[in-house]
Amino acid sequence: MELTWYGHSTWGVELGETSLLIDPFFDNPKTDVSPGELDPEYVLLTHGHADHIAHVGEFDDATVATTPELAGYVAAEYGVDEDDTTGFNIGGTIELGDAFVTMVRADHTNGLDTDYQNTGGMPAGFVVSDTNPTKVADEESETFYHAGDTALMSEMKDVIGPYLEPDVAALPAGDHFTMGPLQAGIAADWVDVEYAMPMHYDSFPPIEIDTDDFVRAVDGNAPGAEAVILDGDESFEY
């Protein structure tokens, strides 16, 4: 499994012969990549805020997978062909090429784009694995948890960690709109991962952080995890 961070919450996932892109937002200071340089087979959307769906319409050959509400919205407003969307929901696992994707809860809001009068259903995170995580034990899997925009929540300790068993987690750490470094460090322990990587930071002034705080929080709260700080457009192979 190869994971590439394009800044903010935008991640590329290469799994077997399948390529996925999560939360396409390339107007952030960490990336030099433009959407046209990428050709994912699948685009996953955690929720409808503009800094997570801004460039979803740039991937004409991709299937967009997200909640039914948000799938309908990007089809109507972003030029995504409705036939190229897959709607699923919290707790569901779908097979996308070589990847099994399970949608999990995120504690956040979900106003659509910049119009916060309308909602896109529940915000979410994704657990992406090379095996069905609800049927196969962790030692047989390579599994990535993209937490979406979330606060620290007991779902991590009660469901995501023990039952979906991620190996690597991308955790929001910018504070203000999501968890900060301390809560992200606790989350790394609760989901019981080997590697924890921060995301959703430094894109705007309110979410600028010192990533050393994230490293210290992981070291202090998740002794079984290693903090990994990626540069923008840098990849990590698990």
UniProtKB/TrEMBL annotation:
Keywords: Hydrolase. Residues 7-200 form the Metallo-beta-lactamase domain. The keyword Hydrolase applies. It comes from the Archaea. One of its GO terms (molecular function) is hydrolase activity. InterPro entries: Metallo-B-lactamas, RibonucZ/Hydroxyglut_hydro, UPF0173, UPF0173_UPF0282_UlaG_hydrolase. Belongs to the UPF0173 family. This is UPF0173 metal-dependent hydrolase GRX03_16130.
